[in-house]
Amino acid sequence: MAMIATMSLVTVSCSKDDDDDNTDSTENRLKFANKLTQDGTSCTWEGTERTKTKQWGNWSDDGDKYAVMRFDRTSTKSIEGTGYVIYFENAYKDNVNSQSEFMWSFANDVLNITYRHEGWAPVHAEYRTLELIIDGDRFDGTWFESSGKKFEFNYKKSSFNDWDKYKQ
Questions:
Q1: CA–CA separation, 104 vs 130, rounded Å?
Q2: Spatial distance between the Cα atoms of 121 and 93, rounded to a whole number of angstroms
Q3: Which end of the chain offers a freer environment for a tag, N or C, measured as fewer CB atoms within 10 Å?
Q4: How confident is the model at residue 5 (pLDDT cuts 50, 70, 90)?
Q5: What's the per-residue H, E or C state across 77-90?
Q6: What is the SS3 string spanning the chain?
Q7: Is 8 exposed, middle or buried (0-12, 13-18, 19+ CB in 10 A)?
Q8: Using alpha carbons only, how large is the chain's radius of gyration in Å?
Q9: Using CA atoms, how far apart are residues 13 and 28, in angstroms rounded to an integer?
Q10: Max Cα separation, the chain?
Q11: pLDDT (tens digit per residue) in 82-128
Q12: 147 Cβ partners below 8 Å, 6+ apart?
């Protein structure tokens, strides 16, 4: 009987820990926002982004681009903000393909990005699952667009600061 009670306590304890990490809450949103901006008010990430389009139930590869993406917020307690993204032809950053300002915010367990560039659809990803992973200086995941596109990315923390050179 004592063994059954102990097993119940362990199960309840583990379940409680899992719930804390896997639920949507203001506290968990703030933890993710802190990782996104590296505990500050701004952080830049850069790396490769692969675009895929869903056709006939399969994902087709539309190629890679090189992205530099900055997330900003007004304070270290904020769970929403603005940002800027520049897409280059390659990692040398010699030719700009496109760029846009954006707003980022949470809705339930989803991190949403709404671009200001005309014609760009919003993207989203669950922040508390494997769709977005921030591990130290790495930010990897998949953004989903409602039109049947997804963007798989592998970013690293960046010291890029030439925003004024490229910003329109």
A1: 19
A2: 24
A3: N
A4: very low
A5: CCCCEEEEEEEECC
A6: CHHHHHHHHHHHHHHHHHHHHHCCCHHHHHHHHHHHCCCCCEEEEEEEEEEEEEECCEEEEEEEEEEEEEEECCCCCCCCEEEEEEEECCCCCCCEEEEEEEEEEEECCEEEEEECCCCCCCEEEECCCCCEEEECCEEEEEEEECCCEEEEEEEEEECCCCHHHHCC
A7: exposed
A8: 19
A9: 19
A10: 71
A11: 999 999 999 999 899 999 999 999 998 999 999 999 999 999 999 99
A12: 121
Measured CA to CA, the distance from residue 112 to residue 40 in angstroms comes to 20
Q: Residue 23 has which token pair?
A: 């639920």
Digit-coded pLDDT (tens) for 50-69: 999 998 889 999 999 999 99
Mean pLDDT computed over every residue of the chain: 88
